[in-house]
Specification:
With about 270 residues, the chain is α/β, with parallel strands linked by helices. Helices cover about 40% and strands about 15% of the residues. It has a single domain, classed as 3-Layer(aba) Sandwich (Rossmann fold). The longest helix is centred in the middle third of the chain and has 21 residues.
């Protein structure tokens, strides 16, 4: 039985991924601090469902806690690590940047250090489409430049992409970074538009629309996203021996590291979405 360690396992995407991995015969170790960024009861209910499977183990603690990840990697020797735990949300990062520094930067550092000492076959980590920031070239391609982030959330995520690349290069650690595009579905996040707007409509309250609704979003259904992650788990990046990468491939020329967009590719105008 293969072991997968999933961080952010009580989160929206993490809980779906854990269920999928359990269905596929993995033993799953889930790490989640159950932060109160949104309703903790929702996280508890997602975790309760997973705990019904005897092959799921939950650790409710902070990934950035010094030594925790190292201990877990040593005792559980995971074959695959999917790192989804993060302080998410673009708006919240305006007033609460420290939460992003601690969870996203320090937390990812602890994962990388543990993976360096006890290397899994494949480390996969969540980034975001927000890293494209000021990029106006559509559709977003992984090979496009993504250097001008417009929120601290996106900046911390871009930093984790770069941190992971350095570990992949220095220690030969195979890493796949995902960039997700607005994920929706059942058990979804109450801070995101689909649930936030629906709640407002049901309560007959006005909807907060930014930029006069003049924006487009690429929505990804959570089970489609998980299908993408599942496929990528088996697509372990290999450092190209001659440094030559096929055109269009976002594989690094010097390290077993690749970044992959997982989206739907059909943008929806916000007003139409509402
Ligand atoms: N949902 C989306 O549309 C979307 C889009 C782009 C990127 N992402 C990224 O995908 C990942 C999963 O997102 P989600 O939508 O499931 O979010 P989520 O908030 O539902 O899940 C994240 C989980 O991580 C946990 N967590 C946060 N900080 C932690 C810490 N320091 N230690 C341990 N656990 C911690 C939270 O308690 C939460 O349950 C995140 O990295 C997020 O940035 C999501």
């Amino acid at each position: 039985m293969k072991t997968a360690l999933v961080t952010g396992s009580a989160g929206f995407i993490g809980s779906f991924l854990c269920q999928r991995l359990l269905d596929d015969g993995f033993r799953v170790i889930g790490v989640d601090a159950m932060t109160d960024y949104y309703d903790v009861k929702l996280k508890e209910r997602r975790q309760q469902r997973l705990l019904q499977n005897e092959h799921f183990r939950a650790i409710n603690d902070f990934i950035e806690k010094p030594g925790l990840m190292m201990e877990l990697f040593a005792s559980e020797t995971p074959d695959v690590v999917v790192h989804l735990a993060a302080q998410a949300g673009v708006r919240y990062s305006i007033d609460n940047p420290r939460a992003y520094l601690e969870s996203n930067i320090c937390g990812t550092f602890e994962i990388l250090e543990a993976a360096r000492t006890h290397p899994p076959e494949h480390l996969l980590m969540a980034s975001t489409s927000s890293v494209f920031g000021a990029n106006t070239h559509m559709p977003y391609r992984e090979t496009d430049k993504a250097d001008h982030q417009m929120s601290f959330y996106a900046a911390t995520k871009k930093a984790t992409e770069n941190m992971a690349h350095s570990y992949a290069y220095l220690f030969g650690l195979p890493v796949t970074m995902f960039r997700f595009f607005t994920v929706y579905g059942p058990w979804g996040r109450p801070d995101m538009a689909p649930i936030k707007f629906t709640k407002a409509i049901l309560e007959n309250k006005p909807i907060d629309v930014y930029n006069h609704g003049d924006m487009k979003r690429d929505f990804t259904y959570v089970e489609d996203l998980v299908e993408g992650i599942r496929g990528l788990i088996d697509a372990v990046p290999v450092r190209p021996e001659d440094g030559v990468v096929e055109e269009g491939d976002s594989l690094s020329p010097v390290a077993p590291w690749r970044v992959v967009n997982i989206g739907n590719s059909e943008c929806v105008q916000l007003t139409r979405f509402i």
